[in-house]
Amino acid sequence: MLDLLYDRRSIRKYSPAAIEKDKIQNLVKAALLAPSGRGIQPQRFIIVEDHDLLQKLSLAREHGSAFLSGAPLCIVVLADSSLTDVWTEDASIAAIIIQLAAKSMGLGSCWVQVRNRNQSEGKTTEEYIQEVLNIPQGLKVECMIGLGYPAEQKLRRTEQDLQYQNIFVNQYGTEFLNKY
Ligand SMILES: Cc1cc2nc3c(=O)[nH]c(=O)nc-3n(C[C@H](O)[C@H](O)[C@H](O)COP(=O)(O)O)c2cc1C
Any idea where the Nitroreductase domain is (predicted)? Predict the structure, then answer.
């Protein structure tokens, strides 16, 4: 697991190769295995593989979503906020589990932030995606995960990247590295 975490990086350039059906099925299994508060499972997912739709989704943000136009697949992570007040946590956990499962299958991925972002003046990114994908109003859009076989190399994380100054023991201020 740690090896996978050191190696996981956001991948925004993808080879044109399609993702195999069994890998898409496994991504869906990973999404459905994600934990949720009280086991409510408010998460909903849309698997987008249609090129025209991916093109449209790439315009969901002024900056930060353009790479989706070159992705063979995108998973839109939604949640029914009427079911639970921790839907953002539930949706986020499912999203990162999808990304880690993708990495474990040799796929690259990158998160596109949707919640609290705007597509253009007067329209939120969420409203834009709801229109493009015909999503009912009550469903919140947390993020979109672009996926595909990597066409860019990113450096693996090293020990030097680990910001131990953010870790404390027992009380805030007691530095982890002084104790371990
Ligand atoms: C909550 C969250 C929102 C993000 N939003 C975007 C985004 O909108 N567009 C994008 O290209 N990358 C986005 N990213 C990817 C981050 O930029 C990336 O994870 C960060 O720079 C660290 O790089 P790494 O993933 O390669 O370790 C997001 C990541 C997270 C966790």
Answer: 7-58, 62-149
Q: Which atom of ligand 1 is nearest to the CA of 61?
A: 8
Nearest atom in ligand 1 to the alpha carbon of residue 67 is 11
Residue to mutate, 109, 110, 141, ligand 1, most ligand atoms under 8 Å from C-beta: 110
Report the amino acid identity of residue 104: S
Number of domains making up the chain: 1
Nearest residue to 110 (alpha-carbon basis) of 14, 10, 23, 9: 10
Separation between Cα atoms, residue 60 and residue 143, nearest integer Å? 11
Whole domain around residue 102: which residue ranges? 2-179
Please write the tens of the pLDDT for every residue from 167-178.
Answer: 999 999 999 998
